[in-house]
Structure formats: structure tokens, C-alpha cells
Amino acid sequence: MDSSTKFWMVEGAPTPVGPFSHATEQNGWVFLTGQMPTSPDDDSAPLPEGVAAQTTQVMNNLVLVLKGIGLGLEHVLSVRIFLTEFKRDYATMNAVYAACFPPGKLPARTCIGVTGLARDALVEIDFIARRPNSAAA
């Protein structure tokens, strides 16, 4: 990797569930690691009950990471969402997710059903963001 690559670990953000950075950045492109619905204050605390509460916690965790590197949801260009109970939880997750963004300002998105996630979570979400005023890639 280029020496200009930044590896971000954000103070106050949740403890990673594996060996990775909260985000990496190069040339203004920021890749946020998928967040789990874990508490930033206590990684061993039980996960919230239900996909609505878990989606809220995941989005809050992602916002913590964004703020920690000087960005916000308005900088998010692409989102990937992973659900373990796709048919059951898709509509509920969508309602919580959509409320996080201003109307008409939704990032591009992919949503995938998966067989399992770390910590037996129901949802995981990652972001690709772009720092404003970055040089064209």
C-alpha cells in the first residue's frame, strides 16, 4: 500500500471483533469496516434485542467512526448491509436505516442475506465515504 494510506482506530468506537482498523483511507476515499451492534462502552454486553434495535446500534457505531475521522453521514456514498434473517428483517431494517439519511440523499446500497455474522448479530453494515475537496482519483 501507498505510504499515504491511513489506518484509523477511533477512540470511543466499538472494539473490533477481529484484526482490522475501524477505517482505512487513501486519496480521500474512506472504507469503514462493517460495524456490529455492540456497545462502544462494553464489548461484552449483550446485543440489543431485535433487528430494529441492532440496526440503530450499528448506525450509531458507524456515525461514531465517521465523526472520529472528521466525516458524517452526508459523506457516505455506498453502503453494504448484511442480514442473517433477510426475509423476516428486511423491511424493519429498511425503516430504521432510511430514517438516518435525509430524504432523497440515500447512498448507493447493496443488501445481502448471509448465514451468520460475528457475535450472532442480526445485521452488519459497512460504508464507503469520500472526504470533501479530495483530489480526483
TrEMBL record:
SUPFAM superfamilies for this protein: YjgF-like
Taxonomy, superkingdom: Bacteria
InterPro entries: RutC-like_sf, YjgF/YER057c/UK114
Protein name: RidA family protein
Organism listed in the record: Paraburkholderia dipogonis
